[in-house]
Amino acid sequence: MPDRTALSDLIRRAAEGEPLWMPDLREMFSALPSSAPVVFHLRLITGEWTRHAYALPRWGNAEEKRFVQEFFYACVYNLLSACSGRELIFEYDPEADHVTELISDLDRVFQVHEPQRRGYGKVISIANRLCTAFGLPPFAFRIGTGPAAPAAVSSASTDPDAVSAAVSPPDSTSTQLPDLSGVICGIDIGGTDIKTVLAEDGRLVAVTEYDWNPAVSPTAEGILQPILEQVDRIRARLPGKPLLRAVGVSFPDVVIGDRILGGETPKTDGMRRNPDLDYNLEFKKIGMLRERLQEHCLPGAQIRIANDGNMAAFTAAVEFGQKGLFAHTLGTDLGSGWVLPDGSIPQMPLELYDLILDLGSRPSAALPPEDLRSTRNANSGLPGARRYLGQSAAFRLAWERDPSLLDGFTDQTASLLTVRTAPEDLRKPCLAHLMDLAGQKNQAAADVFRRVGLHLGVLSREADFLLRTGLCQRYLYGRFTRNRSCFELIREGCTACAPEYELLAPDDDTARTPLMRQLAALPGYTVAQFGQAVGAVCYAVSSA
Description:
Helices cover 40% and strands 19% of the residues. It has helices at residues 3-15, 22-31, 62-83, 97-104, 106-109, 122-133, 149-153, 160-167, 221-235, 269-272, 279-286, 289-293, 308-320, 362-365, 391-401, 427-439, 443-467, 484-497, 514-521, 527-540, and strands spanning 36-43, 49-56, 87-92, 140-144, 183-189, 193-200, 203-211, 244-251, 255-256, 259-260, 297-307, 325-330, 334-339, 410-413, 416-419, 473-477, 502-504.
């Protein structure tokens, strides 16, 4: 197919509402004769380099140019969302003037020099927070001239080995069963609930769940205080309310070296919208969670924090005695985590829930992010994986398949359609309703979870291009796996899209470690929902 015809056909399909998946577009553009090869050299926070090859086709009119621009921006955005880094260098043939034109506009599109950023600029804000935390210059885009360009033009002055040493040890993990003596607390912080467990000398003595909506809090204290209160309450389950030997926390944000550093998730949207505070200064208070937890602990207690996806990966690694695995949490959002063969956790954001997977579906992408029918993530305003996987995806897909599936759960104000959150938050009940219908063989509801699985297959293909995990198994935790029928539908959809991936969902029947077996034996609690909180107990005392 001629290049112009290929581009115009893609644009037509996008306008008609068809999804256009990034992995497919990348392969298609690589085969077009007019495409110019471009190599992305990304220098990570640790100082290491990654290399990714793309191809950018020429355009013939303004509409085609916009489409190629969006593809290029998505390639840059996805790489930085998954990996972040200090600088991104582009290597290509200088005669490819259309590539030069695209690259020359990156600083503006990604708002590199702006104090406040939205949209594509979200990943620059994260990169700069990471760079600042480790004494590095701000993130920069650069142009290289050959294979040796990264080493030649890098301007980062901090010793890469020093940064690597600073961020790596706290996230080294051991899959050996840890010492669980004393009183240890594990916390799994999600978007709609906080799950807390307490272990005493290897016995699971308390399990609690607290519903909340952190996104509406206008201050950091409104997010921190409920977490601290849950720790205080679960300590009170034991006589004398003993101080803790250790605390492990699964937190839904970028966490490196036990430090919460991201600040661009929907959980802090209320803070971001508060005109009476400086968001960056307020977010730094969230980063003080570790210090705030100390009041509940013995002197010298170990307090460890990990991203929720990495906590899922760590939990699976301990549970199955396996090093080298990839895991996701599927609940309010999508979390992603990776344990390397040496047992360490890579020092990168892995914000795969924010990846741009689909450049099509234009009617849905035209809706505001607050509308449940939109494909746009609320925190970035871009069509992101959060609206293809997780709770928001289930609502959107249910409306597309059969709006009656959401009867009684929605509010409509003017043209904005949402799942009701006041006076009662119906997000969790709505998802449970959809899962129950799917388990009862309702075909419309079943299709929702098949499509979630298909989207997980697309995400796996994109993630492996970016990360090169070499792993074909994906361990799933979270609310979406609680219902085995729903998990099987997700697996069916993933297999249809990406048969090379095998989905595994640890459950009560597969619990192996003593603490997890105790959880599985508790009536009313499941490994799928509370496994990460138990994993956080082990993470709290794992060897660094």
